[in-house]
Write a sequence for this structure.
């Protein structure tokens, strides 16, 4: 690989100013987003930032995710007719390129991620897995591309691979029955991608093993051979696992905190929502969402989450696994505050918006739950 010139460095500096984010829609987001689109068309035409903020907020009860993007010019001198697996020096952390995930920053800074330098090259295009971390709550993988200078593309690596990825865990396919699906992270570099997923152990599925081999397979348009990379994964084992099973009831809603996992990388909250009667669907118009606070009143930011229904003896409970930023310091207790969105009219009205263009919410004090934290768990 050639050393970049000063002129190329200037080009990199200019390119790094560009940040693009493209969300990925998954299972449970459709109904809420239709309501929001109606509100945006009537109230906030031209305010694209509102849509981004809303998508972030509704991740609590959806399986939404954000795509990953980044910017960097690299050169590669591999023969275009040769496919190889090789070692590439790691110049920077893909995890540190995440625009908002402080947990992945901590994984790099605290040495909790495993640094890898496995690369596959086909026709002058090199795809590298640079690092991986698994903390019992989520798996995150850093991916980087290198391509010939003449073929540098404005298309992000995430755009190139996100819809063409398959994973094998110890040789067995990962699919909707045993993992959450793939989530993405916005990145500062167009040649980086951060891929994330979780198991479904909190929703009746099998947990991932403490150690396993992950095989990533993806394709790139214009290149005939698929890229296949083996990734060794080990549980960092540094977490607190609580199963409080604390419930609150309000009107016809039964709300339970089933599990809390605290790691240096992720806070995972598993909730169960059920009906005391069958008059109203629990997820009608978005249903009940949650905010999570420490004992000083600091609110955690959301990363992503997923949910599924459990049908048992005529009931249909909604189980959701929400993943948030880690706490900076371990609190003595955490507070979960359920809320609902406010609408102009029911049942077909649009979201009410505040002065900042964000959807208005209303907390439900009757469902609030405080979970004491013990570092000895």
């Amino acid at each position: 690989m050639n050393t970049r010139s000063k002129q190329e460095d200037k080009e990199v500096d200019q390119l790094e100013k560009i940040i693009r984010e493209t969300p990925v829609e998954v299972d449970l987001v459709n109904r809420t987003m239709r309501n929001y689109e109606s509100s945006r068309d009537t109230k906030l035409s031209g305010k694209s930032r509102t849509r981004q903020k809303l998508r972030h907020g509704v991740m609590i009860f959806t399986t939404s995710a954000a795509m990953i993007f980044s910017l960097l010019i690299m050169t590669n001198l591999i023969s275009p007719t040769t496919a190889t697996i090789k070692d590439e020096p790691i110049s920077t952390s893909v995890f540190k390129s995440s625009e908002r995930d402080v947990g992945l920053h901590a994984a790099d800074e605290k040495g909790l991620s495993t640094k890898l330098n496995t690369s596959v090259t086909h026709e002058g295009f090199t795809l590298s897995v640079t690092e991986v971390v698994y903390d019992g709550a989520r798996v995150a993988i850093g991916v980087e591309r290198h391509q010939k200078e003449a073929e540098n593309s404005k298309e992000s690596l995430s755009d190139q691979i996100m819809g063409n990825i398959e994973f094998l865990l110890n040789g067995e396919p990962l699919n909707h029955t045993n993992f959450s699906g793939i989530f993405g992270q916005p990145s500062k570099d167009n040649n980086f991608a951060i891929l994330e997923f979780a198991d479904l152990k909190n929703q009746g599925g099998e947990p991932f093993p403490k150690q396993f081999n992950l095989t990533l397979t993806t394709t790139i348009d214009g290149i005939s051979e698929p890229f296949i990379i083996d990734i060794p994964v080990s549980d960092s084992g540094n977490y607190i696992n609580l199963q409080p099973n604390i419930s609150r009831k309000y009107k016809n809603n039964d709300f339970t905190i089933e599990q809390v996992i605290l790691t240096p990388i992720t806070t995972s909250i598993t909730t169960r929502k059920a009906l005391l009667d069958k008059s109203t669907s629990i997820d009608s118009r978005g249903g009940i969402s949650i905010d999570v606070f420490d004992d000083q009143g600091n609110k955690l930011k959301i990363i992503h989450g997923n949910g599924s229904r459990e049908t048992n003896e005529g009931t249909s409970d909604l189980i959701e696994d929400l993943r948030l930023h880690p706490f900076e310091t371990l609190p003595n207790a955490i507070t979960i505050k359920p809320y609902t969105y406010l609408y102009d009219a029911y049942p077909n009205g649009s979201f009410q918006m505040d002065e900042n263009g964000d959807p208005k919410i209303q907390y439900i004090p009757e469902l609030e739950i405080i979970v004491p934290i013990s570092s000895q768990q």
In short: The first strand starts at residue 23 and ends at 24. DSSP finds five helices and 22 strands in the chain. Residues 167 and 216 are 5 Å apart (CA to CA). Confidence is low (pLDDT under 50) at residues 1-91.
